[in-house]
C-alpha cells in the first residue's frame, strides 16, 4: 500500500484515494466483459460477456460467479431502474428490454419511426421514469458481438417516455454514441463518442430536449500522449466523470481535466459504482472483472 496503480494526476484526486486498499480481480475468463450494473437488494453485480452471449453475476456474500442469463441477446449495457428491475441493451436483438420480477421480458424499444434500431449499447434511467440509451452500429458490423445486418437508422441517443412508451430521438450529434450518464442533478447528459472524434461530449437537458452538445474531454494516455477514448462512463456525487479508458479508468473533473487514473492490465470497457455504500468501483475489462474501493460514491442508483 498504497496501490501503485491508483495514481493522482492532480491533487483534486487525492481525496478519493483510500490508502490501505488495493485493486482486486474478482473474475477471469470472459471474452469481452461489458455493462456492469449493481443490484443493491440482491447484493450482486450483473455484467455482460458479449461474444459468449451470456450475462454473468458476481455475488457479494461469498464471491461466487455464476452465469446469470443464457442466452442474453449479446447484451451490452445494463442498469436497474427505481423499481429494481434490470434494463439491458441487446446488441444481437437490436433492442432494449426490461426483465420483470415474474421472469417475463418487456421490450422497451426496438424500432424508431418503423425502422429497426442498430444495436443499443448503454442505458440509464431518469428519476422521471424515462429510459435513455445510445444506439451505435457495433452489434450489426459482424457476428462476433451481435448479428451482421444492414443499418436502417442513423446512430443516435434516444429517450423512452415513461407514460406513453414512445421512443423519442434526443440527439444524433455523435459519430458513435457509446457510454452514457447524467450529471448528479440530471441537468446534463454525458455521452462517450467512440466515432472518429473520440471524445466525451456533454449537453444540457431541458425537459425532454438535449441542447448544446459540445466537447467535454478528449483523452490521452498519461505520460505518452497517445490517444485514448472513453467507453463506459459514470458520474460520482461530486460531478467527476469516471471513464473506462486506457490505461484502465480515467477520472475527469467537472472542467474536463484529467485528475486521476486507475491502471489495469487489460482494456477497461465499462464501470459502475456498487456495494452497500456505492463506494466500490467495478470495472469490466476484457477477460476480467476488477473492483476497488474509492472515497466517493456513485451519483445514481447504478
Topology:
Blueprint: E1 6-8, E2 24-39, E3 44-49, E4 54-59, E5 65-69, E6 75-80, E7 86-90, E8 95-99, E9 105-109, E10 111-112, E11 115-116, E12 123-125, E13 131-135, E14 156-160, E15 167-171, E16 177-182, E17 188-193, E18 199-206, E19 209-217, E20 233-235, E21 241-245, E22 248-252, E23 258-263, E24 268-274, E25 280-293
Antiparallel strand pairs: 1-23, 2-3, 2-25, 3-4, 4-5, 6-7, 7-8, 8-9, 10-11, 12-13, 13-14, 14-15, 16-17, 17-18, 18-19, 20-21, 21-22, 22-23, 24-25
Quick structural gist:
The chain has 302 residues and is an all-beta fold.
Instruction: Classify the helix fraction into a percent range.
Output: under 10%
Output the structural class: mainly beta
Largest sheet: 6 strands, antiparallel
Q: Calculate Rg over CA atoms.
A: 18 Å
Tally the helices: 0
Output the helix-strand order.
Answer: EEEEEEEEEEEEEEEEEEEEEEEEE
Q: How many distinct beta strands?
A: 25
Shape annotation: globular
**What is the rounded distance between the termini?**
28 Å
Spatial strand sequence of the major β-sheet = 5-4-3-2-25-24
Tell me the strand percentage band.
over 45%
State the oligomer.
Answer: single chain
Stretches where pLDDT is under 50 for at least 5 consecutive residues are: none
- Average pLDDT over all residues: 97
Amino acid at each position: 500500500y498504497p496501490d501503485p496503480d491508483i495514481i493522482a494526476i492532480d491533487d483534486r484526486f487525492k481525496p478519493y484515494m483510500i490508502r490501505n486498499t488495493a485493486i482486486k480481480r474478482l473474475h477471469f475468463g470472459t471474452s469481452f466483459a461489458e455493462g456492469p450494473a449493481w443490484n443493491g437488494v440482491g447484493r450482486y453485480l450483473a455484467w455482460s460477456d458479449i461474444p459468449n452471449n451470456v450475462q454473468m453475476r458476481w455475488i457479494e456474500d461469498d464471491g461466487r460467479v455464476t452465469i446469470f442469463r443464457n442466452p442474453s441477446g449479446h447484451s451490452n449495457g445494463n442498469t436497474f431502474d427505481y423499481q429494481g428491475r434490470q434494463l439491458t441493451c441487446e446488441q444481437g436483438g437490436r433492442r432494449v428490454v426490461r426483465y420483470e420480477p415474474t421472469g417475463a421480458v418487456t421490450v422497451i424499444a426496438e424500432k424508431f419511426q418503423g425502422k429497426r434500431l442498430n444495436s443499443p449499447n448503454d442505458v440509464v434511467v431518469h428519476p422521471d421514469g424515462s429510459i435513455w440509451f445510445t444506439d451505435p452500429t457495433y452489434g450489426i458490423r459482424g457476428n462476433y458481438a451481435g448479428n451482421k445486418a444492414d443499418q436502417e437508422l442513423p446512430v443516435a441517443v434516444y429517450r423512452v417516455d415513461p407514460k406513453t412508451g414512445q421512443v423519442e430521438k434526443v440527439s444524433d450529434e455523435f459519430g458513435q454514441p457509446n457510454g452514457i450518464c447524467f450529471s448528479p442533478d440530471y441537468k446534463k447528459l454525458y455521452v462517450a463518442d467512440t466515432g472518429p472524434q473520440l471524445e466525451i461530449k456533454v449537453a444540457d437537458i431541458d425537459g425532454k430536449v438535449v441542447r448544446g452538445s459540445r466537447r467535454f474531454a478528449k483523452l490521452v494516455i498519461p505520460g505518452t500522449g497517445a490517444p485514448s477514448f472513453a467507453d463506459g462512463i459514470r458520474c460520482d456525487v461530486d460531478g467527476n466523470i469516471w471513464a473506462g479508458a486506457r490505461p484502465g479508468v480515467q477520472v475527469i473533473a467537472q472542467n474536463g481535466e484529467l485528475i486521476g487514473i486507475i491502471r489495469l492490465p487489460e482494456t477497461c470497457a465499462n464501470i459502475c459504482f456498487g456495494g452497500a455504500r456505492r463506494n466500490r468501483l467495478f470495472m469490466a475489462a476484457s477477460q476480467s472483472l476488477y473492483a476497488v474501493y474509492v472515497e466517493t460514491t456513485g451519483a445514481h442508483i447504478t
